[in-house]
Amino acid sequence: MHEYEKMVLEVLKTKKEAKVEELIEDTKLNRDAIIWALQMLEQQGLISIDRQKIFVIKLKEEAREYLNEFPEEKLIKDINKNQDKINVNKLDKIGIIWAKKNLWIIITQGLASITKKGLDAINNNYEQRTILNILNKKNEQDTDFFETNKNIIEILKNRNLIEVKDKSIITRVSINKINNIALGNENEVNVLTKEFIKKYNNENIKFKNYDINADVEPVYPARRHPLNLFINKIRKIWIELGFKEVSGPIIDSSFWVFDALFSPQDHPTRDVQDTFFLSNPKELDISDKKLINKIRNIHQKNWREKWYEAIAKQAILRTHSTNVSAHYLHSISSTDKPIKLFTIGKIFRNESIDFKHLAEFHQVDGLIIGENLNFSNLIFELKRFYEKLNPKIKINIKPSYFPFVEPGMELNYLDKKTNSIIELGGSGIIRKEICKAMNLKKKNVLAFGLGIERLIFDVLPISSLTELYKNDIGMLRNIKEIK
């Protein structure tokens, strides 16, 4: 018998029964040692253990933002304050979803108005917020609390605001067969060491039985970040589809990010609201003067506005990875072979952060260059990609406008968790003006630029892209491997 087991039994022979805290105090052993000893003694039938099931509830970061007010509560207060119908486009989407679900509002012809139930809710405590605050103060709750508030807890869980795990705790330990327990001082070996093996002579030595079913602490091996794994999966798919990976600069001039892609110099996306402009370096030179003149002529002819080289030289953080495509269109202009290229990298946009928007995220961009290519070829390649990535996602395609393609299309899908349309990216056929400037007169160029983080909603148990960058160790340890 191990010395820890003996120490616990000595205490129990005197007290007959005890709590774990009392055993820790009397034996001076740590909690892990006591729990291990109790499990061993219970397996031998020497003690009885009473256990109680409790629920451990962890609040997610988004939930902490709702401790004072939920989005649906703020929404009905705003509507009530205006005392009029409000255009739904001006309201928080999450708030609309839950206010409708609670029957607090009705929406008619795009206008939201508050119901009597909504007016009553303004003056009463919201159950979801009440329970959330209780869980914030005490994250361990007994079965009675859980059963009483099961419906609300389930709603909070489905909203991805909390994580719920149950565990068993030891409430009382009592001794069995008092008269038959012999503690003994037999020479029992618990651990095999190199020194013991050298001296072992097989005399008067008893080996402790090894229990392969004994509880042990979980082991967390080193793992890659799930976003990194997801990007590698995307990379592998494009390579399988015959594409070659290329790369390009994150810091680039407006010329390659915008001008070379036929984006007018007064386009809203160039505004400081969307683009991060650098102060050092403030400008980046453009070496190909012939190309500058071609791009100037194309802009002035088609947009009918003066084109400024100083604007084109502005140093920026790229707002899309299509700048890599622009560089490669210029560098491969003399080839006659069909080419399929893709690039994966970070892009930066000065946007307000919410559940599906970040200021820094990733994009995969691609080109298909050859003769007699059309829209059907592009749709075929994109559908092949998404089928390999996640067959469960139903991709929707609709016409859209982008300055550097004609025609253009947008890809999106319905995220069932948030009931929101998630835009995935744009694509189309590169404009003839751009091909002409890059000396690709006889070529057709198909292009696409797709978001990466937004696709991860259907792969990981997250409700906001911000969760990817919070380095939540619990999530990173327990998340399923992405293959």
Topology (SSEs and partners):
Layout: H1 3-15, E1 17-18, H2 20-27, H3 31-43, E2 47-59, H4 61-64, H5 71-82, E3 86-87, H6 93-101, E4 105-108, E5 111-114, H7 116-122, H8 127-137, E6 140-142, H9 143-148, H10 150-158, E7 162-175, E8 188-189, H11 194-199, E9 206-207, H12 226-240, E10 244-245, E11 251-253, H13 254-257, H14 289-302, H15 309-312, E12 315-317, H16 322-331, E13 339-348, E14 360-370, H17 375-389, E15 396-402, E16 405-415, E17 420-430, H18 432-437, E18 444-451, H19 473-478
Parallel strand pairs: 8-9, 10-13
Antiparallel strand pairs: 1-7, 2-6, 2-7, 3-5, 4-5, 11-12, 13-14, 14-18, 15-16, 16-17, 17-18
Helix pairs in contact: 5-6, 5-7, 8-10
List keywords for this structure.
483 residues, alpha+beta, Arc Repressor Mutant, subunit A, BirA Bifunctional Protein, domain 2, 3 domains, four-stranded antiparallel β-sheet, 18 strands, extended
Protein architecture, described:
- Helix content is 36%, strand content 23%.
- The chain has 19 helices and 18 strands.
- The model has no long low-confidence stretch (mean pLDDT 85).
- The protein folds into 3 domains: 127 residues, Arc Repressor Mutant, subunit A (Orthogonal Bundle); 55 residues, no CATH class; 253 residues, 2-Layer Sandwich (BirA Bifunctional Protein, domain 2).
- β15 and β16 form a beta hairpin.
- By secondary structure, it is an alpha+beta fold.
